[in-house]
Design goal:
An 8-stranded mixed β-sheet has the order 1-2-3-4-5-6-8-7, sandwiched between helices. The longest helix has 15 residues. The chain has about 160 residues and is an alpha+beta fold. The radius of gyration is 15 Å and the shape is globular.
Length: about 160
């Protein structure tokens, strides 16, 4: 399945995407709200870290590229045990502030309600990550709770 937005193409990730994923993890600003801004060393990284480090083999991660093939980032809809899914995304810093996170998240959430048939999709971010919170609001998610320094949003199937 391939998803399209006006500026992006989202495809299921492949191992060939891993170098782009790793490059994202090397940018301190990209990692600021995930681990305090430390570049991730995959050789010593905790495999049970509380943030996703995709390798390109995960069935729920989608690679986002501009229509010219330039890497933008990744999005995921990770299934939960209760039948819902959790939205996640990570974009290159050069792609921030252009509405691409909203574009990619919106198309993936729409797909998630139709194809796998999720009834509810959640997302969380650090309380002080105002840009990510704004993305969640813009795609129609509503605030649910704040817990342990994270703010949770959700949207239900229309």
């Amino acid at each position: 399945m391939i998803l399209h937005t006006p500026r992006l193409t989202l495809t299921p990730c492949t191992p060939q995407d891993c170098p782009d994923f790793v490059a994202l993890e090397q940018d301190p600003e990209v990692m600021r709200y995930l681990n305090g801004g430390k570049p991730v060393d995959r050789a010593t990284a905790d495999p049970d870290a509380d943030f996703l480090m995709p390798n390109g083999t995960e069935p729920h991660v989608w690679t986002a590229r501009r229509h010219d093939g330039a890497f933008v980032g990744w999005f995921c809809l990770w299934p939960n045990e209760d039948g819902s899914a959790e939205l996640g995304y990570r974009l290159k810093r050069t792609e921030w502030g252009q509405g691409l996170a909203c574009e990619g998240a919106k198309v993936l959430v729409g797909w998630g309600f139709k194809k796998p048939g999720y009834e509810r999709i959640t997302a969380c971010t650090a309380v002080d990550n105002l840009a990510s919170r704004r993305v969640m609001e813009k795609i129609g998610m509503t605030y649910q709770r704040t817990k342990n320094g994270e703010v949770w949003f959700q949207v239900t199937k229309p």
